[in-house]
């Protein structure tokens, strides 16, 4: 279950929250073993953290099951 996973950012080592884990899986595939926090992901993709938060909201609104509560 996503809620019980404890995953840390590959780059900074920070604990990822559930939405961050879901976004990693959404963008990199369910089998990904590399996880980045929003800040490091934003740097990697050349976007802002806000862009990524907006994307999370978009995926939630579109009913993506990775992001369900
Ligand atoms: Zn990080």
Quick summary of this structure?
By secondary structure, this protein is an all-alpha fold. The chain has helices at 18-28, 38-45, 49-61. The chain has one domain.
Structure explained in plain terms:
The chain has 69 residues and is mainly α. The chain has one domain. Helix content is 46%, strand content 0%. The protein is built from 3 helices and no strands. The mean pLDDT is 91. The structure holds zinc ion. Zinc ion binds next to helix 2.
Task: Please count the beta strands (DSSP E, at least 2 residues each).
Answer: 0
Main sheet properties: none
What low-confidence regions span 5 or more consecutive residues with pLDDT below 50? none
Radius of gyration: 11 Å
**What bound compounds does this protein have?**
zinc ion
What global shape is seen?
A: globular
Mean pLDDT: 91
Question: Can you tag this structure with a few keywords?
Answer:
single chain, 69 residues, binds zinc ion
Layout of helices and strands:
Blueprint: H1 18-28, H2 38-45, H3 49-61
Helix pairs in contact: 2-3
